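Supplementary Methods, section 5.1.

A reviewer requested that the exact input to the structure prediction be made available. We therefore reproduce it here, unchanged from the version used in the analyses.
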Amino acid sequence: MGCQDVFGTCDVPWIPSVSVATTFSTQVLITFSSAAVPSTPSATPTAITISSLTPSSALSSSSSTTSSACSTTISTSTSTTGITLTSSTSSPVISTAVSPATSSVSTSPEPIQSGCLWVVAGSGSFTHTQTFDFTQLTDFPSADLSISNYDIEAGKAPYSQIYNSDQVSIDDGTLQLKVPGGQTTSPIYGAEVQTTVQDILYGSVRTTVQVSEVPGTCHGLFYYKSDNQESDIEILTADLESGIHYTNQANIPGGKSTTVTHPLPSNATVVMHEYRLDWLPGKTIYYLDGAEQQVLMSNVPDVPGSWLWNNWSNGDSGWSAGPPDIDSVLKIEKIEMYYNRTGSAGTC
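The structure derived from this sequence is encoded token-by-token as follows.
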């Protein structure tokens, strides 16, 4: 099903999710040798021979480098045979590393189930859980997520906006939220999805995301009830160097929001990373790849609402910039939620 939802029952066993890394089908160790080390790895080797064909076991899905031979081994946990190519001489060797386009990163530890509660270390217990694993989904989970369809006035920005279903898809194992490229007139089309439940009151939500490399949009992963009851994780693709923006919006109209920034991973546009927000009474805690980054204790929301994920642009040079020249796509691989609801106790 790809989506686990627990509401008031302990009859179904809890199954923790498993993160799967990109893998290869064989283990290959390639070394090249020459009489002297060439100045570049592309230099022609003097000899290459197949010296052995050996079984391999307990192979991992990560890349590693053997320092003694300056060679690179690529392996997978499903391989049963390894091919080793070695040089015919004992002279110095050079090898070129091969790595997958994406790699696994650290993630938050799974909560511990205690009776009908899910206990998140450092954040307390929650009555509900739900996971959307888009590597396993082909259809949009419309019973639990809804696609936004509404307009936003331009205000002081150059363009107004509109969200609709045309910009939302599941493709290549990800939920894709698109801002189409080349838009020059209002409204600027963007994409947003949100939980169908609108009575979430505190939770721990982890979203595994690949950021768009196309400048001109804002990515948002956030809790929302109103403009004065909102807690955000935001990334600006036109200014990736500004980092990840963690914000509790002002809880009174015209007030000052509480916001900080932390560096964005340098490979955020090429690999998935886990961005996490724990919303608790009196504080919000922000994590990157399972590591705590920031605690905010002012302007903390305190009313029930929804969780949202969006990608948008209104041409504001001080924020989203854009609109983008080509398609800008936020890719979401997984959403994992632990939360409380005011309208459902979730007890056994």
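Confidence is low (pLDDT under 50) at residues 1-103. These observations are discussed further in the main text.
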